[in-house]
Amino acid sequence: MKNAKNVNYLQVDHKIKQISEKEGVVILPSPEAWKKFRWSRKWFSRNPKEGYFIWVKKQIDFPLIVCITTASPKISQNLTNLLIIERGIKVKANVTCNADRNNLCGSHRASGRLVLKDNASLEYNHIHKWGEKDFVNPEYEFVLGKNSRLAYNYKNLFPPKYLLLKTSVYAGRNSSANLNIVINSINSRMKLKDELFLKEDGAHGLIRLRLVGRKNSRIDALSRITAESEGRGHLDCRGILVDSNSSITLVPKLAAKNKNAIITHEASIGNIADEQLDYLRTRGLSEKEAIDLIVGGFLGN
To answer: How would DSSP label each residue in 235-266?
Structure first.
């Protein structure tokens, strides 16, 4: 990885290549944290075998950088990760999970819990880049304390063969959560499940999906907002089908358990209009170049 000296946690296959702690942050392998900090067992989903533990205790002025890589054929990772941000602390995290080569046929499973205590803030940029025959199953849970702020940006432009992606957010009093999920599916099978639970009064959030199906892809996406108290939420789910051999299914769901909650949704699936292609081709682009340009704009590149 380029600029590895700036990486706080680097794991290749099952081997930890680098841990770089700085003042205000504790970084450990998850199994070691399980043993050292008994209180962490409240937050780990299970007794971890591998993965990372990051505890931000004081305000930091640098982004946390994490990289998880598969480099060996048919490797099977199974990580349990935990990120704890103490009260009033603002953090940016750049996390990359990827395959070193395109033909490894590897497996990457990761369950993670990210805890924002009262008045904490997290910008979590999650980038995935996989090989065309990989299996990937990340399950992440965000727990938001009072007045906390979350911006979660997941982007996967180089998809695996199979992707099972589950994201759950539990929003406390007056907290906010913005989820942006961007996926370019190419010859892939994908199941997405993202959920936002407005647990306490004043909680609010947005789930935004941008999905592209190409070359015999299938995407099934379930998005759900549940308002258990007086809160506000919105789903914005959009898909583009590039060819007739692909399919996208969007299932937005809203559940209100409080009469003062306001939750809304919009969902659409379309294709690339011939007029757009024709216009770009008159400008000298090939059909492939025109499609890539349109898709890139839709995905926010």
So the answer is: EEEEEEE-STT-EEEEEEEEEE-STT-EEEEE
Q: Where are the beta strands (DSSP E) in 24-89?
A: 25-29, 52-56, 64-70, 76-85
0.85 surpassed by pTM: yes
Q: Average pLDDT, stretch 110-134?
A: 97
Region 211-233 average pLDDT:
95
How many alpha carbons fall within 13 Å on the CB side of residue 95? 23
Instruction: Please list the helix, strand and coil fractions of the chain in percent, rounded to the nearest 5, in that order.
Output: 10, 55, 30
287-299 and 274-282 are packed helices; what angle lies between their axes, rounded to 10 degrees? 120
pLDDT digits (tens, 9 = 90+) for 45-85: 789 999 999 999 999 999 999 999 999 999 999 999 999 99
Tell which residue, 238, 212, 188, has the closest CA to residue 291.
212
| Structure tokens given for 204 | 């609010």
Contact 64, 96 (CB under 8 A): no
d(CA 97, CA 163): 13
| Cα 94 from chain centroid (whole Å) | 11
- Torsion angles phi and psi, residue 41, rounded to 5: -65, -20
Strand order in the sheet with 52-56: 25-29, 52-56, 76-85, 107-116, 135-144, 162-171, 189-198, 218-227, 247-256
What's at 87, amino acid-wise?
A: R
Question: In the prediction, which pLDDT does 300 show?
Answer: 76
d(CA 152, CA 27): 21
